[in-house]
Design a protein that fits this description.
CATH architecture of the largest domain: Alpha/alpha barrel
CATH class of the largest domain: Mainly Alpha
Radius of gyration: 18 Å
Largest sheet: 2 strands, antiparallel
Structural class: mainly alpha
Distance between the termini: 9 Å
Number of strands: 2
Strand content: under 5%
CATH topology of the largest domain: Glycosyltransferase
Number of helices: 13
Length: about 270
């Protein structure tokens, strides 16, 4: 793994915000006011962020993705905008404890956010539940209660299974949520399946898995994270980037994610 060529790739191809994320990842340099404004400027009045597939709609999926990106700028729940995002998620939680995008968007939403899909519902519940469990301040019990309700929903789908009947990211998000909530015994049931799938995961998936589980407190030397970190380092291209499974337009994003993940497992 070559961090010098990776940094050069982002410096050459990235926009100012992506270069600000690089400086935080490498040097823990806080974002400038300009970079912070650029990152947070798209937040809607309700605390959510709109998606590319549904303008003027605050998406659960996109809001969780923004919380993931915020880590690469050193932002946490002490940032008021992120706390507003957590409250947005609690307001969008359904009565049974799950999350789902608005039903009228079924013709627009991608598979992982598709209203009416069990797989998407479980993924969004794991994603929102993870961020609430991970970032909820200790004095805001209502946010952790929301995460606890999500954990209860997902646990009903684990009976007799070693993974959730959903998209694979739901597994590491749910495991991270259970880990944050002190339910390691449930999270532990998911790790062997994920480790068996490491060889076929994309760079973006491996980085997402590592960042999620390290953020939840899983030891960097856990066999799953060791395997994921080794595989991720192997996927770097000669020009420094990590090629994205979603196409070249995402290469800078996946390269930043890979670098951030590799730092979490002491490989950068």
């Amino acid at each position: 793994m070559n961090p010098i060529t990776a940094a050069a790739y982002i410096e050459q191809r990235g926009d100012p915000l992506q270069r600000a994320r690089l400086r935080y990842i490498y040097y823990r340099q806080p974002p400038t006011d300009e970079a912070l404004h650029q990152f947070l400027g798209g937040q809607r009045p309700d605390g959510g962020w709109q998606s590319a597939w549904a303008p003027n709609y605050s998406s659960i999926d996109t809001t969780c993705a923004m919380l993931f990106r915020a880590e690469q700028l050193g932002l946490g729940a002490s940032e008021p905008a992120l706390l507003r995002a957590l409250h947005f998620l609690t307001r969008r939680q359904q009565a049974d404890g799950a999350w789902e995008e608005a039903p009228n968007l079924s013709s627009l939403a991608p598979p992982m956010a598709l209203p009416g899909s069990r797989e998407a519902r479980l993924f969004l519940t794991a994603s929102a539940g993870y961020w609430l469990a991970r970032l909820a301040p200790p004095d805001m019990g209502s946010l952790r209660e929301s995460a606890g309700r999500a954990a209860a929903v997902l646990q009903t789908y684990m009976a007799g299974r070693d993974r959730l009947p959903s998209f694979m990211p739901a597994d590491w998000l749910a495991a991270g949520m259970w880990q944050c909530l002190g339910r390691a015994e449930v999270a532990n049931r998911l790790y062997p399946f994920m480790e068996s799938r490491v060889p076929e995961m994309s760079a973006g998936q491996l980085a997402w898995l590592i960042v999620t589980l390290r953020g939840a407190g899983l030891d960097a030397n856990h066999t799953l994270l060791t395997a994921a970190g080794t595989r991720l380092a192997e996927l770097q291209a000669d020009d420094g980037r990590w090629p994205s499974a979603e196409g070249p337009a995402r290469d800078v994003e996946d390269t930043l994610d890979a670098l951030f993940a590799l730092r979490q497992v002491n490989r950068l």
